[in-house]
Design goal:
heterodimer; A: about 525 residues; alpha/beta; Alkaline Phosphatase, subunit A; nine-stranded mixed β-sheet; four-stranded antiparallel β-sheet; 14 helices; globular; B: about 140 residues; alpha+beta; Alpha-D-Glucose-1,6-Bisphosphate, Chain A, domain 4; 2 helices; 7 strands
């Protein structure tokens, strides 16, 4: 019997939204306890700041430029490498419960497995590529899907439609009549993607994900090795948690985030230091990516709307923490606590009012790039608790899962297993992480590459519809933790720029086998 | 209104390619996600893998132009027109062009993604028939 793995992800959650990382509004005792008794990474970065490329990196251990799912709407190839398949081959029982998003959501034909499985049933061998070895899909033996609200033809949505139809109307309508991300406001302040949702708490997707996870764990034998990916759709917008829980955080008592600059002129001056698409989006002149509402103009966002969004976000995080607590109790009841590794993270961050912005896009700053990442090793492994401040990447997750299982990472894994201490990080060269962005939406092409070290966050904008290949950003993280002062053109930092640019070139030219970039077949 | 267009060369005579896609009742054999369909006059109803039904109207079946046109009549679409054209480049090679025009714009991208894979499946089937000796 080996070590079991519970991999917990959320969606679009900032580093500073949990208590142990300085979060002020969510009570997160379960996540905090994992951090205090495990390894808390304080500089964890995604490979991309949107869902599909980032999640594909978790599964493959590869950067988007390797696995080929280079933007939302580009499916990860069905024959792409999968750490779940590796673990399946090593005898692990494997499951993914909640949000997957390796394949596009906007799929009216249901031609992607994620969108067809709930209709086809669980499990299925209907897919033509099923070979009897790979599990139902991508190496997972068991899949039950949910996403934000009741959108899509996924298991949670179907369960709600079939059993609780009268509760469906309380959820926010994620897309508008043009099928763009909805900008309509709600709540007390008219904040975009906010809605007071009368759904009962036990019907909300956060609790559903935990319930279904516990149900799957209950099917396992005590000595089974397993890899369970429990993937909560929250706190990604829409922000429509159960109304019964709104008492937890009163938005009127929420302070504006440190990254919000109250004076509009000062705020816009900071934005103007950055690459041009920041201001273009802020003023509502350009929509470079699908993930933010097309009709949302950040310049019109009010302080109270930011407060209400952040209160809703905090409530959703708190519900996730309680759901995690229930699953951990179920794990303990099975007697697995000593032999289970638990890893908690998210796929990317959220502006939450920093710079007067919401949502996400090609904006490589800590709001979107600095993530919570906690690894609580199985006590039987004898790994001491630690705080690791060196930069690490979610690309390291696949190798970490395999290391936990006692197996070497195969050749296709780009990341090395996460360090267990700062000394380990130093010994194994955890000096920098890379984040990529590529998007082309109705002719607007944006290509961004960033490198983060312990000292700097450096970004280059490649040639595209909005950049000529000469623009960039450089932030000194210790002196400028909010990234308000762009040093890209400061002669005093020319040598730093050269060194960081060389790191980006080395990443671009790394000599590995890469998948053919996928074809954009949907906006998300 | 937005248009998404995909095209590719196919190593097969244009008539074989036309033969793959011109019968409306056979769409489930080459369009991904369509599990079956039914016809009632020029109205085609697709049954999709996600359990949804999608109504369409067949607009054009022109063997001279090798043009097939249809429109989705679901209320989700304010306008839709799908056009598949095959143009002979030589006796044994042709160009397949699959266009989607749609309002809302986003649906052109969504439908277009399906047509990209459908185009490749049409090409695969046509080239397989050539490989089996059909002329």
């Amino acid at each position: 019997m080996g070590r079991k793995i519970l991999f917990i992800t959320t969606d679009q959650q900032r580093f500073d939204t949990i208590g142990v990382n300085g979060g002020l509004y969510s009570r997160t005792p379960n996540i905090d306890q994992l951090a205090r008794t495990g390894i808390n990474y304080t500089r964890a970065q995604p490979s991309s700041v949107v869902c599909m490329p980032s999640r594909a990196s978790m599964l493959t251990g590869q950067f988007p430029s390797t696995h080929g799912a280079w933007m939302n709407g580009v499916p990860l190839a069905v024959n792409a490498p999968s750490v779940a398949a590796e673990l399946h081959d090593h005898g692990y029982k494997t499951s993914l419960i909640g949000k997957a998003h390796f394949e596009p959501f906007l799929d009216v034909f249901g031609r992607y497995t994620e969108n067809a499985l709930a209709n086809l049933g669980i499990p299925t061998i209907e897919q033509p590529w099923f070979d009897g070895r790979m599990g139902v899909h991508r190496g997972f033996d068991h899949l039950e899907f949910a996403t934000h609200g009741i959108a899509g033809n996924l298991h949670y949505a179907k369960w709600m439609q079939q059993n609780h139809f009268d509760a469906i109307g309380g959820f926010y309508q994620v897309l508008d009549a043009d099928l763009n991300v909805n900008a309509a406001g709600g709540g007390d302040t008219g904040a975009p993607q906010v809605q007071i949702n009368p759904v009962a708490r036990d019907l909300y997707h956060t609790d559903w994900v935990a319930d279904r996870t516990i149900a799957w764990l209950d099917t396992l034998a005590t000595d089974d090795d397993f890899f369970c990916w429990m993937s909560f759709p929250d706190p990604h917008h829409p922000w429509d948690p159960p109304a019964s829980e709104l008492h937890r955080v009163n938005w009127r008592e929420v302070d504006l985030p440190e990254g919000y600059i109250a004076d509009a002129a000062q705020r816009e001056a900071v934005i103007d230091q950055k690459a041009r698409h920041w201001r273009e989006w802020y003023d509502g002149r350009v929509v470079s990516n699908y993930e933010a509402p097309a009709k949302f103009v950040p310049a019109n966002l009010t302080p109270d709307q930011i407060r209400e969004v952040n209160a809703m976000n905090a409530i959703e995080v708190e519900l996730i923490d309680e759901a995690i607590g229930r699953v951990l109790a179920a794990v303990a009841a099975r007697g697995w606590t000593d032999d289970i590794d638990i890893i908690f993270t998210t796929d990317h961050g959220e502006f939450q009012g920093d710079f007067g912005l919401l949502f996400k896009g090609p904006y490589h700053v800590d709001s979107l790039m600095r993530l919570p990442l906690i690894w609580k090793p199985a006590p039987s492994a004898g790994i001491a608790p630690a705080v690791v401040r060196e930069p690490v990447s979610l690309v390291s997750l696949a190798a970490t899962f395999l290391a936990i299982s006692g197996h070497n990472a195969p050749y296709w894994v780009e990341g090395q297993a996460l360090p267990v201490s700062s000394a380990d990080a130093e010994d194994r060269g955890f000096e920098a992480t890379i984040t990529e962005w590529d998007s082309v939406l109705f002719g607007v092409a944006v290509h961004v590459r960033s490198v983060v070290t312990t000292e700097y966050l450096y970004t280059e904008y490649l040639s595209g519809a909005m950049h000529d290949g000469t623009e960039g950003e450089l932030y000194v993280l210790n002196d400028d933790p909010l990234q308000h002062s762009n040093r890209f053109s400061d002669p005093a930092f020319a040598a730093v720029r050269r060194e960081l640019s060389a790191r980006l070139r080395a990443h671009a030219e790394r000599p590995n086998e890469r998948a053919t970039p996928g074809v954009l077949v949907a906006p998300v | 209104m937005a248009t998404v267009r995909y095209e590719r060369r196919i190593a097969a005579p244009a008539d074989i390619v036309w033969d793959v896609y011109h019968r409306p009742e056979t769409i489930h054999l080459w369009f991904p996600g369509v599990t079956s369909c039914s016809m009632d006059g020029n109205i085609r109803t697709l049954n999709l893998a996600n359990g949804i039904s999608m109504p369409e109207e067949i607009m054009t079946i022109d063997p001279v132009l090798r043009r097939f046109q249809y429109r989705v009549t679901s209320p989700l679409y304010r306008f839709h027109l799908g056009t598949i054209d095959t143009i002979a480049l030589s006796d044994d090679e042709c160009m397949l062009i699959y266009s989607t025009t749609s309002d809302p714009d986003v649906l052109a991208l969504v439908i277009g993604g399906g047509t990209y894979h459908a185009m490749n499946e049409i090409a695969r089937q046509a080239e397989a028939r050539v490989a089996e000796g059909e002329k």
